[in-house]
Amino acid sequence: MVYNYTRPRGPIAAMYSSPGPCYALPSLVGFPNHDPRSNHLRGAQWSFGIRHEKFNSECSPGPCYYPDSKILRDGKDGTPHYSLYSRQKEAMIFSNPGPGAYTPENSDHFVFSKAPAYSLSSRNKEFKVDDVPGPNRYNIDPMLGKTVRSQKQSAPAYSLSSRTKLFGAAETPGAGAYNITDLNLYREAAPKYSVTGRNQLPTDTTRKPGPGAYYPERVHMNSQSAPQYSFGIRHSQYKGEFITDADLDQ
User: What's the confidence (pLDDT) of residue 195?
Assistant: First the structure.
């Protein structure tokens, strides 16, 4: 027996697996909200522009910023320019000394020979007597032993160092402090045995099934079983699709 579905009188939403044509994406061709599937001609449309703001006097920089007519694309036009400099200052008359400003009678010691003359200068303030070191402040380098600035060869010098704390007589290991290498390391080792610990029973206190809880006679995995049939459920051809709020917003 075959089940015949009744023909619906109108469209059923469950018959469609998609949300439907009402959720079509907007077209990217033509003017906004244009439907390319439409066969109707669209009439002419006119739009009014926006009102421009009034021109204020502060909007333009003014004619002072107009380009100069004498400046071309390649630079200035090359016409000669003349300029007037300011008046120079008057030169001052050089005041030369007259004949009466000279005293030739005082030039005897510059022209004629003169006897030697000596003068005593004043004491210098920078140098003091106390700043000069005396003879006992200097130390002459010794000539015995090792010298640093002497050019003569010094005699050999010997020094005795102190007793070292390491490697003393009491700290030296004896013959019994060394271990003999085990023969099992570089020769064939002998067999070794180990004794394990005593195994303890598990401490789990849960109830576990015993041998009598199993039914091996009901198992037919090793033998051929008879065919088995089952009745399934009736599936509807109007399978609904889950539509979320995000699908409705598109």
Answer: 85
